[in-house]
Amino acid sequence: MALFDLGATTKTQIHKAVAFVALCLCAYTMAQSTVEPPDAPHADISNQLIQARLYLPDADRGYYRATRFDWSGIIASLTFDGHTYFGRWFDVYDPNLHDSITGPVQEFITGLGYDKAPPGGTFVKIGVGVLRKPRNSPARGFFTYEIVDHGKWTVAAHADAVDFLHEVNDPASGYGYRYKKTVRLTRNQPQMVLDQSLESTGRQVIETEMYDHNFFVIDKQHSGPDFEVTFPFKLTSATDLRGLAEVRSNRVVYLKELDATQRIRTELKGFSSSASDYDIRVTNRKTGAAVRVTSDQPLSNVVFWSARTVLSPEAYIRIHVEPGWTMTWRIFYDFYAAAPGGR
Question: Nearest CA to 176 among 212, 200, 140?
Fold first, then answer.
């Protein structure tokens, strides 16, 4: 026998109230996952032609605090001639989620010292810091690791540029570095330049690859036949693009607009050892917005990745730095407007 008999009407009201509270909590959680932090440190730069906002590294309040991508040079937005090139492309925002980030961003793909580190030991991720290898090691993937030491970040913002310096030392793994990046808008030109250098300050050789995950969100257009991605060499695709896109000579073209569940990912081959092959153009024929990405380094790999709200030709370069030596490289973004319907 029940201690209290609330009656059918009262029970129904309670059930409705509980359901309403649950619904509100669910809605609140969903809202929290889509809201971006209003106080994330950032800097605004301009050269009159281009206006851009960069998120700044911060262990406590930074927009991005996961361990996949380099924390420097994250472009929140960039506009030129009425066109937008970068922005939020994902549904769920979490600063500790590997891809809650806007482009162009970079990843140094090898966890330096990861393979030799014992479970619970440390290794280094350039642009992030000293990380701990889990005792139950996950597949490399995009796991967010514990950060043991964030290193020392020094940031200087100017009217048309932001300078980043990251210093990290991990005696246990033998890796250390001084990593510099300047994101600069060229005077009187619709151009952004990434000037970068990496000095090995530890006892180990730094051997890895770095790629730009460009995360282009151009005029908020959906990935589809209005976009075209062009290279200076004849392409071959390592993967069947499943009727969503195809390679035509030196171009990647979409055959249909992607829906919310569809993704494209493939490695592209055909490039030579010449830096002149690092020359990628992305054009939206509907709006006329276009961008050309070049570098003074040769390609070591190319991946093309796309979802409905974003597309990203990912250009890799090889990084090799002996102890006490420094490697430098530059990447250029030239923004322009093509005639709508053209290239």
Answer: 200
CA 211 to CA 124: how far, in whole Å? 17
Write down the pTM of the prediction: 0.89
Percent of the chain with pLDDT over 70: 87
Task: Summarize the confidence of residues 274-301 as an average pLDDT.
Answer: 98
CA dihedral (170, 171, 177, 178) in degrees, to 10, reads: 90
Residue 207 lies in a domain: yes
Number of Cβ within a 10 Å radius of residue 61? 12
Report yes or no: 46 and 52 within 8 Å, Cβ to Cβ: yes
| Domain tally, the chain | 1
273 in Cβ contact with 181 (< 8 Å): no
Do 87 and 296 touch, CB atoms closer than 8 A? no
In DSSP notation, 15-84 reads HHHHHHHHHHHHHHHHHHHHPPPTT--EEEEE-SSEEEEEE---TTT-S---SSS-SS-EEEEEEETTEE
Residue 35 lies in a domain: no
3-state helix, strand, coil split of the chain in percent (to 5) is 10, 45, 50
Determine the structural domain holding residue 239 and report its residue range: 42-337
Pick from 197, 164, 198, 155: which is nearest to 182 by CA? 164
Contact 282, 291 (CB under 8 A): yes
Angle at 51 between CA 48 and CA 53, to 5 degrees: 145
Q: How far apart are the first and last CA of the chain?
A: 79
Residue 175, pLDDT > 70, answer yes
CATH number at residue 86: 2.70.98.10
Confidence band, pLDDT 50/70/90 cuts, at residue 14: very low
130 lies in some domain = yes
What DSSP letter does each residue of 282-310 carry, written as one string?
EEETTT-EEEEEEESS--SEEEEEEETTE
Q: In what order do the strands lie in the sheet with 105-108?
A: 105-108, 206-213, 310-321, 301-307, 264-269, 236-237
Cross-strand bridge partners of residue 281:
230, 292
